[in-house]
Here is the input.
Amino acid sequence: MERDGSVYTHPELHIDVTATGNGRHEPLHDTPSQADDITPAPPSQLMAGVRTMLGGLLKRATEKLPVGRQKIMPYELPTVALHDVVIRRWQTVDLQHAWLVRWMTMVWPLHLDSTYVIGIKSILERLDDNTSATAPHVAYLEPLLAADRPWSEMGQLLVLMGLLSKDAGTRGLAIDVLVQGINDSRAHPDPLTDVLIGLAAGEWLKINRLASSLSDVARVSPLHKLIVTQIVQRFLTSCSQLPRNSHDLLALLLDLVTELGMAINDDVKAMLKQVKGNSKAAKLARLLLAITAASE
Here is the structure.
């Protein structure tokens, strides 16, 4: 390199990464004379290796195509390729750092279902555990705060899983996400409850945590109270019988309809009339029916 008429030479750094018999790497070489036998792979070989890797990925993807599908579309590959490298090949890396999750969400910002699935799996594995630095669940939820990003079914499931988590940070951000979703109308009670019903069918539902999280959401405004009321009522009517710990949801519903000055709908009323006994759920059911009768 020339500067002001003088010539400067930068030292070269040569690294030999060839593994020896004992599983260790050769020592680093800091002079050209010690690394004369190192020949970099030509670009053609590097590209051939990349094509082989992507070809294997494409083959695995197309082997499981549904009947009638002849090929996989290019737009279906980016996030799949990303996860293939991060999860299957780099086992020691894992997704234990928030920056790595955030980087993944920037690859295809409007199609994050594959990233959401990893987040759902991560939350599910630690559903009853406290906050951990090696489980950056909040990073999976952050994209759902963007007002111009629609919520897919996987996105809604991720929010609900966050509401059920024992991890205070994850649960708190999931509450914020749902509040924001109601504010900008991305969180609609019908599809959100449909996902909740599917989650309950898998017996993953923690009624007490769900009721506590929804209660925090409902405190924000009358609109949030109304949306939460609709979610709770629609979920209860989907149950053939009241689920375990349903008294938490019934207590929340009682508070909401009292504050809103409204009655429960006919489907919930019919279900509550079948509840007998002196349990907490039965007492709350009778209170809800009494409020409905008074309002009529």
